[in-house]
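Quick log. Single chain, no ligands specified.
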Amino acid sequence: DQRLILKSKTWPGKVEFGDRFRVSAILGGEDVSSGAWHMGVTIGRIRTLFHPGMQGGAFRFERIDNNRHLSGTKGVGFEPLGDSRQRMSIDVTKMLDGNVRLDVLLEQLGEGGRTFQNSVTVEAKDIGDLNEISLDRSGRSGGKAYFRDFMITLNH
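-> predicted structure:
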C-alpha cells in the first residue's frame, strides 16, 4: 500500500479531527491492469475505495489493518475510467454512541459525469480514533495514482 497520511496533531493541531467533518479529493489512475489495484481515502482505520478502469468500479469499505470488508463490493453504476478523474467526498459524523457514519459521494468528472452515493455506519472499535486521514493506492501491480485538491472541512 502507498499512503499519504495527514495526522490531526499536525493539522489542525488537535487529538482528533472532530465529530463532524468532510474529506474530499480528486483521484485518478492510469489505465493499466484494471481491477488489480484500487484507490481511495482512509479515515481512522476505514478505507473507502474503488477500482479505476474496472467495470462497475468495485466500490467498498474495508479496514486497513486486516482488510476485512465492512460492506459488500458494489457497482457504482458506471466505470470509473482509467486516465480520467473522480471526486470522492466523505461526510464523517461521530454519533453519540461513538459509532461513525460515513456518507460517500463518488463523481466521474468530465464529459458525461455520473455519480454514486453510499453510506455505512461503522462501530467505534472498527474505525478507531478519528486522528488520521490518508489518500491511498493499493495493489502490487497496476497503474500510477493521481491525487489533487485534497481538502478537509471541519465542523461540516
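Residues 8 and 66 are 23 Å apart (CA to CA).
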